[in-house]
Structures are given as structure tokens and as C-alpha cells.
Amino acid sequence: MRVELGTAIIPSAQVLDEMKNASDGAVCVFDGIVRDNTRGRLTLFLDYEAYEEMALSQMRGLAAEALTKFPIRDVALLHRLGRLEVGETSVLIVVASAHRGAAFDACRWLIDTLKKTVPIWKKEHFADGAVWAAGEPFPNEIAAAREARETPK
Amino acid sequence: MRVNVLYFGTLKDLFALPHELLDVPDGATVETLLSLLHARTSKQSEVWRALAVAVNREYAGPATVLCEGDEVALLPPVSGGARGRCGA
């Protein structure tokens, strides 16, 4: 299991290479990169910030959970922070497994869950201003919102 | 008692600071703290309806009782990964 959070460039090809093992039949990769626009608005760069200690422990928890939830051999989960330029990797997920089905499923589950639960935020910088990207709603078991508070147990 | 409140993302801009020590009544819960902070801001913000809270780096529900010295983080909806909610 490899889990990292930091400002260094993510060496996607190298991580992928190092994850391969003779017993694997499949390595599934999700390489999340910075797009040059948001709904047509030209993006100059993105700024990622995290609640670092918590984000890292959440990422470790997710990687460990994937290993018990899916029949896979190993997981790498790397997220970058700070200023990222268009085309650069912000998040890299590599799942190695004997069979492709589990590798695809685990990879998809990891990115979807990370995007809802790991405390990382990004500010999008455009030519004409900057905004915090709207995040996905928290799952009910995490949300502290008034609606969630009023939901009968 | 005193707790250390951390702000992230859009909340950091709203309060114009990354963290502060706050006095809260003994027995205060996460909900008590949220109400106190919400009352301090004149601006109505969507973010209050969508928050999560972490106490000492673990997600914590509104009924969680706070203790002296707790680290309480107010977390707007997260947007890590590759794209926002409209992305691929």
C-alpha cells in the first residue's frame, strides 16, 4: 500500500511501473489531471489545500478499506497539493489485481469515495477571478448540516 | 473552556483567518459551536447547510460533546480529486 499527500509532482508512469507484480493480471489506473476550463471558463491554474493530517489518515483508511472490500493485491493513492498547472496530475490511483473486474471496481470506488470524504479543496483561478470549487455533498453519515440534524433516526 | 477552531476553503475566506481559539460553554456540542459561529456571520452562505465537522481529526456528528483543547475543523464540501461535481 502506497499513500502520499504533498506538493511534489506525481510521477505517474513510475508509480504504475513499481506497482506491477508477477501475480497481477491487471493494473487499473485513474490519473486525474487539471483541465483547461470549467464549463467553458478558461482555467489558468488550480490551488489545492488540505486539512493535511486528517486527509492523509482518511486516504490511508480508504486504501486499507479497498484492500478488504475488493479482491485486489495492492493500492497506490497519491494526491498533490499547492499550485497545479493545466495537464498536471492532481490525483493518481493505481490498483493491482489478479483480475480486471476487481481492479476497475476498486479504482472507481476509491476516486468516488475520495472526492466525497477526504478533506481536500481546490481554488480555481481564472483569467477574471478565483473561486473555491463546489464540492460534492457529504454522505449523510458525515454531514453536520441542519437538514441532517433534523432527519429522524 | 477553549477549543481550537480550524477553517478551510471558502470558510477561511468568510472568517478571514485559518484558525482561532474560541471560548464555548462547558458541555457545548458541535451543534452549539456551529450555531455560535453561524450567528457571527451576517452573510447568509450556502456553506452552512453543507458542512461537515471533524473533532480531533475524526468526522463528528452534531451531538458530539466538546472538551477543553479539542481541535474542531469546519469542512466545506470537499473538492479534491480531478474535477468538481460537474466534471468527469
What does this structure look like?
The complex is a heterodimer of chains A (153) and B (88). Chain A is α+β, with helices and mostly antiparallel strands and 153 residues long. Chain A has a single domain (2-150), classed as Molybdopterin biosynthesis MoaE subunit (Aldehyde Oxidoreductase, domain 3), CATH 3.90.1170.40. Helices cover 32% and strands 37% of the residues of chain A. Chain A has 4 helices and 9 strands. In chain A, β3 (37-38) and β4 (41-50) form a beta hairpin. In chain A, α2 packs antiparallel against α3. Chain B is an alpha+beta fold and 88 residues long. Chain B has a single domain (2-75), classed as Roll (Ubiquitin-like (UB roll)). Helix content of chain B is 19%, strand content 25%. Chain B contains 2 helices and 5 strands. Chain B has a 5-stranded mixed sheet.
